[in-house]
Amino acid sequence: MQQLYQDSMALVRHFGKPLLFITFTANSNWAEIEDELFPDQTAADRPDPFARVFHLKLRDLLGQIKNKEVFGLW
Amino acid sequence: MANIDRFISAEIPTEDDPIGQWLRDIIQKTMVHTQYAGGNGHALSMKGLNPAVVTTCHKGYPRSFQEETIIPENGYPLYQQRNTSSSFTIPVRGTAGTVSTVIDNRRVVPYMPYLSLCYNAHINVEVCGSVKAVKYIHKYIYKSGDKATVSVDSKHDEIKRYLHSHYIGPTEAIWHLFAYGMHEENPPVTHLAIHLPGQQPVYFSEHADIDRIRAQIEESMTILMTFFTYNAQNKDGRQYLYHEFPEHFVYKGKIIGWQKRQRGTAIGRMYSVGPFMGER
Q1: Can you give B243-273 as a three-state secondary structure string?
Q2: For chain A, which has fewer Cβ within 10 Å, the N-terminal or C-terminal residue?
Q3: Domain containing B146: what range?
Q4: Does the model's pTM come out above 0.95?
């Protein structure tokens, strides 16, 4: 953990301070999760599609920021 | 300031076109801090606070109205949260829907409209005031979950003493089972060893004989030694300092050493040497 911290401070040294701090939280009402539920199940009963859907959306969000540059190039 | 307002909003959307209505629905469901709304003193964010004395919860909600976005001395921006008529009502928690309360701009968590529309989820977007955020990430993500000591009843006390574990939720357990990453850094950071000539670490088995150990000392190579070897044999890397070297060359292990970088980049980081560690 200490080494990882030193690594990220090396990135800060190179690029400067971080500009944005983004928190992304899953939404248990996402249709992609609800479609996978069996009758009488809630999202809390099915961590497997929950994790898969969130992982896909997280990759997509990172792609929006890195490749589609939704925040531009500050 | 205008740049911040272009990307980040902390107000209830007021546009009445279909997209505006859709966004307003998402914001009202995902981006409003409602825990303490309506005087719910049992809210988690009110822990240890007396609702009769304080006006805001631990997280600072409700905020004060803010005519325009400003960045105060402490570096934490105050986003535009105007005193407009836009508001909506929600039922107060713990009252079974009998009491409702009005939510206005002061309880909206900063968000980016485009991302909220894309994902219909809680996505908090904040401008970073300082490098403290980097430290915060380490506390949050890099550490493992909450620790607990589990004791199993048996006579073998040694086992009891060494059985430490931590508990994680089902979603995080699945996340690990799928081998999804907990963090990701880009570009990669190359660790650069520092040592005096002849003081590189040498690893050998405790059963090794003297000739084997001697051979291992002869063969030992560190990233620093390969850096010197490369520059002794090649002229194309001599203008770069040690910590700049990984940006232009790739370390391929101690046998191959360094090669000219074909693509990508990396950042070099020398291990820190404290004043008590002697000469390096």
Answers
A1: HHHHHHEEECCCCCCEEECCCCCCEEEECCC
A2: C
A3: 132-177
A4: no
